[in-house]
Amino acid sequence: MTTDFQQARASLGARLRELRTEAGLTGRDLAALLGWTQSKVSKLETGRQTATAEDLRAWAEGVGHPEATPELNARVQGLESRSRSWRRQLAAGHRPVQDALSAEYERSTVLRAWEGAMVVGMLQTADYARHVFTRYADLHDSVRDIDDAVRARVQRQDALYRPGRTFHIVMGEAALHTAICPPSVLAAQLDRLSGVFGLDTVALGIVPFGAPVSIPPANGFWIYDERLVIAEDWHAELWLNDADNIALYRKVWELLSRSAVYGHKAHRLITRARAQLVLS
């Protein structure tokens, strides 16, 4: 979670506490009034938990200021514009998330990606993507619209074959070996990666095991032109559109890409990973 996000959530908590104290209520009083635990009131006020729209409505009414609800909702929407929690996003399943991402791909012409231990979605086969979505649905206990999500991801890959866009993708060699799926599915995925080298819209680099790196590889992210970064964490996606953060992620991408190999050297790593698979 970013420092900016933490500060914004703490600011919202301070505003909630201000409304409560102005109403002459203790945290225990408000919790009893709303039927909540006192710990929930404390977490919201100290910025350790993000309030839902229903939480904010109940709080505003509980302290006698229902007119404050729009203001409080606007504060949360400001948080969500930067940090979009998976819990909220996946309440309606994976397909809406994929549709939102597709819109950003359509708006962009130069896209850069880093992924350390998984094949990027833009290059995934349908079977590989199905296993990825299933694992995340299990993790977040979300709606299991797996087939719809896979279709949306695969349809988005049409952009790889249309002129006017370039994809600069860097992955760690671990992505070629991570067994998120059965060996037969991974084999087909590696074959798919081998075919990417014939596309003039894609520059695919692989950071080999043991290659010296200028920065510790961390979470995956995409840079859309010079206007937006979308970075993934376990709890949320970060949507960052301020110049400083975009420049930071661009620097990270450049540092990682310098450690990557391209062309026949990258293809050799994929071929070697494919040969090491034991198929049943």
Protein model, in words:
It is a single chain. With 280 residues, the protein is of the alpha/beta class. It folds into two domains: 3-81, Orthogonal Bundle (434 Repressor (Amino-terminal Domain)), CATH 1.10.260.40; 92-276, Endonuclease, Chain A (2-Layer Sandwich), CATH 3.30.870.10. Helices cover 52% and strands 13% of the residues. It is built from twelve helices and seven strands. The chain has helices at residues 3-22, 27-34, 38-45, 53-62, 69-80, 86-89, 94-107, 126-140, 146-156, 183-196, 243-258, 263-276; strands at 83-85, 110-115, 166-172, 202-207, 221-224, 228-232, 236-240. The protein has a seven-stranded mixed β-sheet with strand order 1-7-6-5-2-3-4, with helices on both faces. Strand 5 and strand 6 (228-232) form a beta hairpin. Helix 10 runs antiparallel to helix 12 (263-276). The mean pLDDT is 92.
